[in-house]
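Bump. Still looking for Signal recognition particle receptor subunit beta structure tokens.
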Amino acid sequence: MTDVTSEHASPSFTAQPDVVSFASTFKLPPNALLIGSAAVALVGVLIFALLQRRSSKRGSTILLVGPSDAGKTAVFSSLLYSTSLPSHTSMQANSGVLQPTPETTAKLVDVPGHPRIRGTFAEHMKDAKAVVFVVDVNGIARNGAPVAEHLHQVLHAISSLPPSQATPPLLIHAHKSDLLVVRSNTPSSSVSTKSQTRQLAIDRTRTILERELEKRRKAGQAGVNVEGMGAVVGGGSGEESWDGVSGLECSGSKDGSAGTFKFEDWDGGEVSFSAGWVDVVRDDGITQVENEKRKLDAEGEEDGLGTLREWIASLP
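Sorry for the wait, here they are.
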């Protein structure tokens, strides 16, 4: 009998270090990279579209608006042709291409100021680069209320523009300032310098318009019917109305306190002022400005629109 010896060898185990791969620790799901790339691309497209939309919404038209007989057409022809043409009350808009600087051009539109058609300026607001409100500074003391009514329509139209459109700056131009006479402290001098008459024109225009617009704002807040509020801004048939406060909102004075209407506190946008004049040639060939006074005021200028031209040239 053969003895068979069975050996049962015990299995041997070798300890292996538990090593975790660095790459596996930060391994992303298969679609995470694709989603991230798509998100980054989408954000880039949105930013580009927003920038393009903003730039495309900046208008290219400069509007000349204001009451009849303020001198808008004379300003229009002087800006375009450097000369004033015989003019009369306009009943239709004039337009032309203005070149404020050698590198820029803009469309200049002169909107009639007749009450029945002056609201047509709203048709051009969607492409407005800037708005110039022309006022006859010599007549504003007696015509302050109707001038303020017209300006209120312009302020309302500007403040009602959609957020996607760049807000056009507003310049209130005190026209015919050469006809103002400022009394000097020196008895021998009765006519001030050009800069003094311009400043007087601006101060007078600002004060009267702020006072009249404040009256309209208070009347609207009190629920009183305000003249001109039933008309459509845009010259329509009157199907749309607006209250006496809309367009005159102010955030308060610079110190944070509530106060009366001030252009510097107006919520609707930027308001600037200028003053000047044009030597208008009438149909009979006589200039509106006397030769003697023109010599005193001209001081080397071809007309009195230098500050207006500078403002237009500074527009973005």
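Residues 60-236+269-313 form a domain with the Rossmann fold fold (CATH 3.40.50.300).

Edit: fixed formatting.
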